[in-house]
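Hi V.,

Quick status before I head out on leave. The structure for the redesign project is tokenized and pasted below; the design run finished overnight.
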């Protein structure tokens, strides 16, 4: 036997899919809307699995509370930008040099805000709203990134993440399996 449990998490975020290409035969137009700066109400469903139960459970659902905190503190109401995006230096001109970025343990960077500590509050607020990644922030890549983050943490308690469902909108979803 194998058991699977899941827990859902919601958050808001913005991104830009600068690599978007369309075939008008299938898309019915050539409008590259995902190349625009835009936002979503995202939802992530984390699926954990086990072929044995401990105390009658795969694990306690509370063992994912840390992930809710990560999403709330790091991703919610932030703009996720690919450092390779041609607009990156336009969006973050003070952070063209990667040495001005702070590397975070979960494979993303943030602007070093000490460089702008004397700037007006609205400038600080703008820069603190960026999450910088090294991939195009599509739903497929975001779900992969989140699966890697969750799996690394869950390894410490010997729990397998079987897959992540990532809803970019209520009708558009990607799934990545481990």
């Amino acid at each position: 036997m194998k058991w699977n449990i899941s827990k859902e998490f919601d958050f808001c975020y913005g991104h830009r899919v600068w690599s978007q290409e369309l075939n008008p035969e299938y898309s019915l137009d050539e409008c590259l809307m995902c190349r625009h700066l835009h936002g979503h109400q995202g939802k992530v469903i984390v699926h954990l699995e086990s072929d044995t139960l401990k105390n009658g459970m795969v694990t306690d659902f509370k063992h994912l509370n840390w992930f809710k905190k990560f999403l709330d503190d790091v991703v919610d109401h932030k703009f996720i930008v690919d450092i390779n995006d041609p607009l990156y230096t336009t969006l973050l001109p003070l952070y063209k040099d990667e040495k001005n970025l702070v590397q975070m343990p979960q494979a993303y960077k943030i602007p070093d805000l000490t460089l702008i500590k004397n700037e007006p509050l609205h400038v600080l607020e703008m820069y603190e709203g960026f999450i910088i990644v090294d991939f195009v922030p599509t739903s497929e890549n975001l779900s992969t990134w989140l699966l890697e983050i969750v799996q690394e943490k869950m390894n410490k308690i010997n729990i397998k993440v079987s897959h992540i469902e990532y809803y970019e909108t209520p009708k558009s979803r990607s799934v990545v399996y481990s």
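Above is the designed sequence. DSSP finds five helices and eight strands in the chain.

G. will cover questions while I'm gone.

Best,
W.
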